[in-house]
Amino acid sequence: MNMNWKIKEYLQHFSMKQKGLYIGIACISMFILGIVGYIFILFLGNYVIDEKKFVMNSATSLVDQNGQELTKLYVENRDVVSINNIPEHVQQAFISVEDMRFYEHHGIDLKAIGRALYRDILAGGKVEGGSTITQQLAKNIFLTNDKTLLRKTKEVVIAINLENRYSKKKLLEMYLNQIYFGHGAYGIQAASHLYFNRDVSELTVEQGALLAALPKAPNSYSPILHPDRSLQRRNVVLNSMQRAGYLSAEKVVRLQGRTLSIDVQQRVKEPAFLTYIDMVMEEAKIKYHLSNEELLKGGYKITVPMNRDAQKVAFDLFQENKYFPGTDDGVQGSFLLMDNQTGGVLSAIGGRDYVQKGLNRLQMKRQPGSTMKPLAVYGPALQEKLFKPYSLLEDQQTSYNGYTPRNIDGSYAGEVTMYDALKDSKNAPAVWALNELGIHKGKEYLNQLGMPIHDKGLAIALGGLDEGVTPLQLVSAYRSLATTGSTIEPYFIQKIEDRNHNIIAKAEKVERKVFSKQTAWYMTRMLEGVVEEGTASTGEFNGALAGKTGSTSYQAVKGATRDTWFVGYTPAVVGAVWMGYDKTDENHYLTKGSSHPTRLFKDILTQSSLKHATAFTQPKDTKDLEAPIRLHAVEDLSSNVTFKPLGLFTVKLEWTPSEDERVIYHVYEERNGEAELVAKVEGEGTYEIERVNVLNLPAYYVVPYNKQTKQQGKQSNEVIPAFFGNEQRLKQAEAS
């Protein structure tokens, strides 16, 4: 019995030891497995976490030179912001309602999971989630919304690895920048601007609580769509902040008594900016190798030279049919305005009904008409010293191997100054001058001006080109006349900064010298004349303006116009307006000419906030161009004979002189049918001839003379002086 009892006791003791050993081994195994599992989870993290996915899509901002935002480009409207710029009370609002133990757990909150399971069991369904902020970040960035065990397992693995790699502050920063707040706003900065029109750093406690209320159901709790629900949900968040110890009960009561106080700033794409935005995106792609997709996601800040006011004024005026004369309301147009000094484009309109990524008429080639005369003919002729502004050009209907240019008005003066040929846009003198200059020489200058053409005929002088040119090309070329003879490359992007505020691209001033300062100044003076008294005199503009009109005919319909232009510049800006149909036919053509784009150009400048100088500044070391001398016929020449003690008998001639004191009057004495020049009188209307023989008095007449052109005007009436001044024989002279 004793032996059996001892054996039994021994066996029981041995069994207890064995059980303890097994338990110990099991505990050690579980510990080892836990360590191995944890290491395995960390090892898996290297495969499931792609850090490139943390680079969030960010909106690119377009701002003007004053830093004012013009628009945003984005796939997701998000402005990434540092956690240091997010107030502590805003962070606390999100932690209170989304993950109260955020700073205590390591990615997985077992207490929260247990509590959620317990409440789900009591409710008989899922009523509470146990996901931490880190798990939500893992799901939103790396996973889908599929409710599967595999997806949940991945979420846990990723969350643990995220906690191991990043600080809590960094995880919270990524979460607040990543979540969706409704109405197209991604991230807390974009949401703050959308709902409160303020930076996130300026949010109050109750505003932060409202934003924290949204991620659970952005549409259901939208303060725009459902203000009552939104208010209730905000107050729930404030209660959560009290339970978490962030707010006192009294503070919560006071805050819950406040209204939503939202100041919604929903972004609407400004239609006036559509052309400009497309030109910016195209320039970023071609010049700086940034794709459109990268711009929409990269969070860049692009500074552009746009003048917001000029852009909107141009857009609004382009909607008015009165400026666009056609057979119907389908007339199209384009407009470009550029800063003379920098080349920055201030305004761009690609069409009256331009749609994003649509047909951009600033890039379409059209026949430029007479806007080509200063560039292909007169500028080069001055530069080559072939002619001067008041040189006489042949103005006759002449055939050049079958090509016979005609003046629009059908009249020909025989000879006309370059100044007047340009002012009145005469065709015959322009073609004659190009023929004298040489077609090859004119094309050389066009090539230097950035307008290479393959045309070989004299029609180049009148803008009759096979392919035509674009408004961009014309504006760049006319800039050479507006300054000191150099073209400049227009640009739409002044600089590009990345999301870290590093400048990664900047516009460079690309100029090409074509004309001398003297040639440019002469052309400016002549083009001022075009605006003041020539074909571009239509409309009103209170400032210095030089420019040239142009139009091309549609031959199928008498009097119809295909294209019409005005290209002009002030001391500060240079621009162009084109009008026409995208496709001209017998039912679609312009019914008026260049007066309409001229008036539109002047109205845009007048109604915008651009400052305009009253005069061009003459470049140093250049000769000025005097205004043209205009000769007027003398029809009131009179004379008398008086006696002077020393001069004996004196003939005094009198006439009404021109207001222009530069006019010279040649005084002629005629005897026996032969005339002799006896005097030259400048700027006056009297002349005396002393010691005359009263018994044999000749006849006299005067002829006005233009010293600029070396041309005489019409001969005056002829007079024969009488001794007492009471008897005169007047004989009307024939025109010389």
Automatic annotation (TrEMBL):
GO terms for molecular function: acyltransferase activity; glycosyltransferase activity. The keyword Protease applies. Its EC number is 2.3.2.-, 2.4.1.129. It catalyses: [GlcNAc-(1->4)-Mur2Ac(oyl-L-Ala-gamma-D-Glu-L-Lys-D-Ala-D-Ala)](n)-di-trans,octa-cis-undecaprenyl diphosphate + beta-D-GlcNAc-(1->4)-Mur2Ac(oyl-L-Ala-gamma-D-Glu-L-Lys-D-Ala-D-Ala)-di-trans,octa-cis-undecaprenyl diphosphate = [GlcNAc-(1->4)-Mur2Ac(oyl-L-Ala-gamma-D-Glu-L-Lys-D-Ala-D-Ala)](n+1)-di-trans,octa-cis-undecaprenyl diphosphate + di-trans,octa-cis-undecaprenyl diphosphate + H(+); Preferential cleavage: (Ac)2-L-Lys-D-Ala-|-D-Ala. Also transpeptidation of peptidyl-alanyl moieties that are N-acyl substituents of D-alanine. Coiled coil: none annotated. The keyword Hydrolase applies. It is an enzyme of class 2 (transferase). It holds the Pfam family Transgly. PANTHER family: BINDING PROTEIN TRANSPEPTIDASE, PUTATIVE-RELATED, PENICILLIN-BINDING PROTEIN 2A. This is Penicillin-binding protein 2A. It comes from Priestia iocasae. The lineage of its organism: Bacteria, Bacillati, Bacillota, Bacilli, Bacillales.
